[in-house]
């Protein structure tokens, strides 16, 4: 389809538009907006807390939200609980690795249990 062939957004069937808007609102009710690293706007799970950590695992497409859990494992590793995923426009699909290579992000090794 060429751009000239596209319909105006105002010509969308009102019942289709209502269903789409309802589905979008149902999805977004589980999320909230947050400001992350360097003021980046992010969508995080609605039960996220300020002390949580946003991490991007090597090879992953989506950042994760982790929460520190008190205590150490037998090997003296810190424990984290996965809270959910994060939507951060410029940290998706490998962009975080590029930022890390430019030394804009801190790379830390840890063990997920």
Produce the secondary structure layout.
Layout: H1 14-28, E1 31-35, E2 41-45, E3 53-55, E4 64-72, E5 78-85, E6 87-88, H2 95-101
Antiparallel strand pairs: 1-2, 2-6, 3-4, 4-5
Explained architecture:
- With 113 residues, the chain is an alpha+beta fold.
- The protein has one domain.
- It is built from 2 helices and 6 strands; from the N terminus they run αββββββα.
- Strand 4 and strand 5 (78-85) form a beta hairpin.
- It is elongated.
- It starts with 13 loop residues before the first helix and ends in a 12-residue tail after the last helix.
- Quick check: average pLDDT? 80
By oligomeric state, this entry counts as: single chain
What is the molecular shape? Answer: elongated
Pattern of helices and strands: HEEEEEEH
Q: Tell me about the biggest sheet? A: 3 strands, antiparallel
Tally of helical runs = 2
State the share of residues found in helices, binned by percent. 10-25%
- Outline the low-pLDDT stretches: none
Give the tally of β-strands. 6
- In which order are the strands of the major sheet placed? 1-2-6
| Class of secondary structure makeup | alpha+beta
Number of domains: 1
Radius of gyration: 19 Å
Distance between the termini: 48 Å
**What fraction strand?**
25-35%
């Amino acid at each position: 389809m060429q751009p000239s062939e596209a319909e105006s957004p105002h010509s969308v069937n009102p019942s289709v538009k209502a269903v789409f808007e309802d589905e979008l609102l149902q999805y977004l009710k589980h999320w909230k907006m947050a400001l992350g690293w360097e003021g980046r706007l992010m969508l995080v799970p609605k039960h996220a807390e300020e002390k949580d950590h946003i991490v991007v695992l090597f090879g992953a497409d989506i950042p994760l939200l982790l929460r520190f859990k008190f205590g150490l494992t037998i090997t003296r590793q810190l424990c984290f609980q996965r809270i959910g995923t994060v939507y951060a426009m410029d940290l998706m699909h490998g962009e975080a690795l590029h930022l890390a290579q430019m030394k804009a992000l801190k790379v830390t090794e840890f063990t997920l249990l």
